[in-house]
């Protein structure tokens, strides 16, 4: 259910109710601008991933800086964005359920809607839904870029899918998607370059196959915050799907020194118990901050570590000689993983220079269907 | 934000939109009845933990079977329950923030409200909020039962806290809480018995200390689904806080053979991609099913394993010779951990004999402040 916002505009950050999802607006806007500059210089398009932010407000801020549209993973996310005025949305994922496809076809009346397919039955189901609604849906062929999750194998399978899409009067062939999720989180630049290099080769081979069959592939889309510079420079990718760059997290920051973007997302936590010297407990456990990619860091306090998360508690360990923490004191936590952390919260609290400037709903929170 | 329900009453389960949170109503009701019988036989009271279910509907079903009230971890959860007609609520957690305490004091006008303290400043803050609102708040002393998280040390600290509460005209001394969270998930019965035995000893010593100071300790509350039979038989605990028993999960089921309760909670997932033999991908990743206590199991399919979770994808591995999975096919996943899985969803879909019988909102979902 929608929760009440933990803050009001004008409030000081240390008066915000905890836990709360804080956006440092200076850092966030710097990230938006920096990425806009990078993609412009590289001559590629940016279609940021809304799985990170789940907010039409953020989507519009990205569009104002040149983003050509948004990616989503779920039909429910597409609905929230389209209903919030986002005009161009790609579901960067397979959709095969007829009820979900009917919802997408309905959305195609108010926005440009694309989706992915990696199986001829998915293509046929999308065509049936589009025919039934009297619209045309844009379908991209997802190829397995090397991650071994979804995606058709490059070669005859991918080519046949593209031709099947192009042959349908109810579909538009939208290009190919080659997203390498695993590559985003590889630890060294060399590992990421090798993984993305292989993905570029696979994508390029499919583009060439299609050209030989007379099918122009105007869009090759993929990439994430961990790898986008490689895809941008590849000469094969035309569109980048990076999402996390707007907020960043501890996991992405570990992989690049210095990180190319600023940490803009925090979970504000309050100290609720400090029964023994050297320890304290904050009111943000893993229901408030995702731990799938590691525990959060404590921002600005290198002498305090978040050492264990239970559902509603975060256990802190203070280094010897650390300044003690007071009951009620606020701490900013840097999430280990931004996307699922955002998805736990109903509200963004936008802060600048210590004061709450804006509240935004996490409008597609929980839009998992 | 509140999402649309993934089902309607009367629908067949295999038509429910995915992912969806499924309650097997026969199993759920059997669990409610079984626990009610166990606590009645043991002569203790049951105050189930709403951190699991986050639903006034479930709370009322538990009350109808004799539960004396509910536990919550968060003020926001207390609000949702009180506004939903639950008359007796214990925040089984420290609350030290003045704004949160003011919200609790306001609730004390429509429900019997308790909270925990492990620090004299917490007691004073609760007294100030109660005085300001013109109500009395019930405060329990939380002792460290052995888990080393929150809680005052048994001995002079705990006694002084109890006396401080009892001395305030704005507070009621409500007893002690001795919850051993770590003990719930120890793997063997012997380990759990040793941990709870130590907790019982600590709690008993505090009760005795208080008696010597002329303070009757009418409530000793604690225990969870992993240990409650031990506390129930202790002669020291008067009230059990078990919550997960209503739903169960893969982690609790691993610890007791046969499990004393039935698996009643599932995440229904749909197969969205199956590009290579022996693998498939479902549309429920860790945004839909919590993985902090291990990956989900695939119910009824011992030949299929859920082997990796990304944000929105679950990777399945099929054993050699396994019956293939069809695109669009539904699978019931058994969550590794029920509480945070529930907290990802907006709706319970109550199913009996293959059909949707009821929808309940997860009313306190995201009530983390």
From TrEMBL, chains A, B:
User: CDD domains, alphabetically?
Assistant: PLPDE_III_LS_D-TA (cd06819)
> Which UniProt keyword terms apply here?
Lyase
One Pfam family this sequence matches? D-ser_dehydrat
User: What start-end ranges are recorded for coiled-coil regions in this protein?
Assistant: none
Name the chain's protein. D-serine deaminase-like pyridoxal phosphate-dependent protein
User: Quick check: keyword Acyltransferase in the entry?
Assistant: no
InterPro entries on file: Ala_racemase_N (IPR001608), D-amino_acid_metab_enzyme (IPR051466), D-ser_dehydrat-like_dom (IPR026956), D-ser_dehydrat-like_sf (IPR042208), PLP-binding_barrel (IPR029066)
Family assignment from sequence similarity: Belongs to the DSD1 family.
User: What is the organism field in this record?
Assistant: Labrys wisconsinensis
Q: Where is the D-serine dehydratase-like domain?
A: 264-352
Identify the domain of life.
Answer: Bacteria
């Amino acid at each position: 259910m929608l929760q009440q916002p933990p803050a009001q505009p004008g409030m000081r950050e240390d008066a915000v109710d905890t836990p709360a999802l804080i956006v440092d607006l200076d850092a966030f806007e710097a990230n938006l601008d920096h990425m806009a500059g990078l993609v412009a210089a590289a001559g590629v398009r940016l279609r940021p991933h809304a799985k990170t932010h789940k907010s039409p407000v953020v989507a519009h801020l990205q569009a104002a800086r040149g983003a050509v549209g948004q990616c989503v993973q779920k039909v429910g996310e597409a609905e929230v964005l389209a209903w919030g005025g986002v005009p161009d949305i790609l579901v960067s994922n397979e959709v095969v359920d007829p009820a979900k496809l009917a919802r997408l076809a309905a959305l195609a009346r108010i926005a440009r809607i694309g989706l992915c397919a990696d199986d001829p039955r998915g293509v046929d189901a999308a065509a049936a839904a589009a025919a039934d609604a009297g619209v045309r849906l844009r379908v991209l062929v997802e190829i397995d870029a090397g991650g071994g999750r979804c995606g058709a194998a490059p070669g005859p399978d991918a080519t046949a899918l593209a031709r099947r899409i192009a042959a349908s009067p109810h579909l538009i062939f939208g290009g190919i998607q080659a997203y390498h999720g695993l590559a985003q989180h590889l630890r060294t630049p060399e590992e990421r370059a090798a993984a993305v290099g292989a993905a570029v080769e696979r994508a390029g081979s499919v583009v060439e196959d299609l050209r030989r069959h007379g099918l122009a592939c105007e869009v090759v889309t993929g990439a994430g915050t961990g790898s986008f510079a490689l895809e941008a420079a590849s000469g094969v990718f035309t569109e980048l799907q990076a999402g996390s760059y707007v907020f960043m997290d501890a996991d992405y920051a570990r992989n690049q020194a210095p990180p190319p973007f600023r940490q803009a997302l925090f979970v504000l936590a309050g100290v609720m118990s400090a029964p023994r010297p050297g320890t304290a407990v904050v009111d943000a456990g893993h229901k408030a901050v995702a731990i799938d990619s590691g525990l959060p860091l404590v921002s600005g306090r290198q002498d305090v570590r978040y050492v264990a998360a239970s559902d509603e508690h975060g256990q802190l360990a203070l280094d010897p000689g650390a300044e003690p923490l007071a009951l009620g004191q606020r701490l900013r936590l840097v999430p280990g993983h931004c996307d699922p952390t955002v998805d736990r919260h109903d509200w963004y609290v936008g802060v600048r220079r210590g004061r709450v400037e804006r509240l935004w709903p996490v409008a597609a929170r929980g839009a998992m269907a």
